[in-house]
Amino acid sequence: MPKEDILHHLDTCTDFIREALAQNGNVLVHCYFGVSRSSAAVIAFIMKQHDVEYQAAFDLVRSKRRFVQPNPGFVSQLKLYRRMGCKIDAQYQRYKLYRLRLAGEQVRKAKILPQSFNSLIKSDPAVTQENPEPIVYRCRKCRRVLASKSHVLLHNNKSLAASATANNGLPPMSSNANTDAQQAPRLLEQIAAQIRKASLNSPTGAGAADAAKEQQPAVCRDIVFVEPISWMRNISHNTQGRLHCPKCEQKVGNFSWINGCQCPCGEEVSPAFYLIPSRVELSKAVQNVQTTL
Predict the structure, then answer these.
(1) 27 Ramachandran zone, left/alpha/beta (phi>0; psi -120 to 50)
(2) Which fold has domain 118-156+220-288?
């Protein structure tokens, strides 16, 4: 099934195949139809062994067996595996979101977070640490540290991305004919400037890095989505609820394992653990880390 977790088996599969081939052995990779599961394992091995992208590995495997076709869920997991360098990177943002979605599926079924997912709940950043992170989010009322920068799950501003796509990076056209006529020369100048800029910043030019940077979507800051943190009460035994500051009890956010949350920018994040920007503040002082009981 597309939602089945095959990602966490890929390292075992690829290691087995590599070791067998290193000993001049033969390997039979099989499943019921030889279409999705077995092909996913072989594609993962090709990507890792030959350092190629998903599509190249898929094309090679299909050239040997024309029936192969991993299901959409496996394809997404294989591409994530490749983005992580063909290994599990627990700090990679997309991997964190993937693990949260797996946990959300389990909570949807059992109404409780299985113990195998307890590692998703991060330690409290307000507890004294040897090397505390300098950038933290604090309760705006009592200044209690709630989350570190590494706990934040970023997402792109969907509304800005949609606007940029619709306008293709150019100013929106006016519906007024007279205004159009007056602004036409200016618009042509802007288009010419856009073309010159694209030419200068093309991958073959000196400004390739700047061009790539400009093309990246803007990060949304309407809502602060974070990983589950140990100060969040009852998140292991409830499917959704409110998040209260553990010191002053003020509501600072909400959580939901199954419904998620739609950001004002239009992006939907699920599962969602988020802090309300008006209830928290960003601090860049290391000394804000305190000891809590």
Answers:
(1) beta
(2) 2.170.150
CATH superfamily of 7-20+27-89: Protein tyrosine phosphatase superfamily (3.90.190.10)
For the cut 60, the answer to whether the pLDDT of residue 236 exceeds it is yes
Residue 53 predicted with pLDDT over 50:
yes
Instruction: Name the residue with tokens 């606007």.
Output: 163
On average, the pLDDT of the chain sits at 83
Q: What is the pTM of this model?
A: 0.75
DSSP the chain: -TTS--GGGHHHHHHHHHHHHHTT-------SSSSSHHHHHHHHHHHHHHT--HHHHHHHHHHH-TT----HHHHHHHHHHHHTTSS--TT-HHHHHHHHHHHHHHHHHHSS--GGGGGGSBPPTTS--SS--S-EEEETTT--EEEEGGGB---B-HHHHHHHHHHTTSPPPPS-HHHHHHHHHHHHHHHHHHHHHHHHTSTTSTTHHHHHHHHSPPBP-SSEEB--BTTSTTTTT-SEEEEE-TTT--EEEEEESSS-EE-TTS-EESSEEEE-GGGEEEE--GGG-----
Pick from 229, 238, 234: nearest CA to 275: 229
All structural domains of the chain with their residue ranges: 7-20+27-89, 118-156+220-288, 168-214
Active site residues: 31
